[in-house]
Design brief:
two-stranded antiparallel sheet; Serine Threonine Protein Phosphatase 5, Tetratricopeptide repeat; alpha+beta; 8 helices; globular
Length: 272
């Protein structure tokens, strides 16, 4: 069980500051009244979420894992997503013996916080217990995983604006500066690398199509029928990459560079 605590930010009430310009006072009062009204509405919501999280943690500590799972799932359904909530939910499923959903929630925790050490460690333990299969990563994907997609998006945005400022500087400069040219080249290179990294991670084996097998005795098959020949047995917690959907079946890329059809209800995508 994680010793970390989930934090829910509260909305501060704006204080009226003294100003020498009396004409601004009505606007300041209006802004503060609006902020106060928002805080009155939102603060109880966060307080309730804190209470539900604490109650779920208490249920977990008392070995009431079904109740803990229900509490954490309620927070997730209400949109309260955080790495610690998914991590604790994974722990609860693990202790309840549901390795598939334990792995699913550890993966969701790591999708939000890639360097969550407890989730990383427990994910490996759960995989070993379930003998879950993993997707093979390409070598660019392995090397690019030191940062998240969000971090690459920020890097691309910074590089874009830096390059734009360099272009403007070159246009209006009386003479070309070698420093600005070098900075422009660097920013363009950084922008291209960040965009390629975003594409590779988003479409790779750990991208948006990644799903975790949560059902038991799941067989990937050659066709959309329970009587079709089996391609691969998928223990709970195994990774698949969903490629398309047909009715109650999904066609997925499988570990060991295979592909096959699995029941849609037997797997859940990591990204909500």
């Amino acid at each position: 069980m994680s010793t970390r605590e989930n934090s829910f930010a509260s909305v501060p009430v704006c204080e009226i500051l003294q100003t020498s310009k009396r004409g601004r006072l009505p606007y300041i009062l209006a802004f503060c009244c609006a902020t106060f009204a928002v805080s009155v509405v939102i603060s109880p919501v966060f307080a309730q979420s804190d209470a539900e999280f604490a109650k779920a943690n208490q249920d977990y500590a008392q070995n009431n894992f079904k109740e803990a799972i229900s509490g954490y799932e309620t927070l997730v359904r209400s949109g309260q997503w955080s790495a610690n909530i998914f991590y604790n939910l994974g722990n609860a499923y693990f202790r309840a013996g549901d390795f598939g959903r334990a792995i699913l929630n550890y993966e969701r925790a790591l999708a939000l916080e890639p360097h969550h050490p407890e989730a990383t460690a427990n994910l490996q333990i759960a995989r070993d217990e379930a003998r879950a299969l993993e997707m093979q990563q390409s070598w660019p994907e392995r090397y690019l995983q030191f940062a998240s997609i969000n971090q690459y998006v920020i890097t691309a945005a910074v590089a874009f604006w830096l390059g734009l400022f360099c272009v403007v500087g070159l246009i209006f400069a009386r003479r070309r500066s070698a420093t600005i040219i070098a900075l422009l080249t660097f920013s363009l290179l950084l922008f291209v690398i960040a965009i390629l990294a975003i594409y590779e991670l988003d479409h790779g084996s750990k991208g948006r199509a990644l799903a975790i097998v949560t059902g038991r005795n799941v067989q990937a098959r050659l066709a959309t029928a329970d009587t079709a020949n089996s391609v691969l047995a998928l223990p709970p917690g195994s990774e698949v990459k969903i490629l398309s959907t047909r009715g109650d079946w999904v066609y997925a890329a499988l570990p060991n560079n295979l592909c096959g059809w699995i029941p849609a209800k037997s797997a859940e995508q990591v990204q909500l």
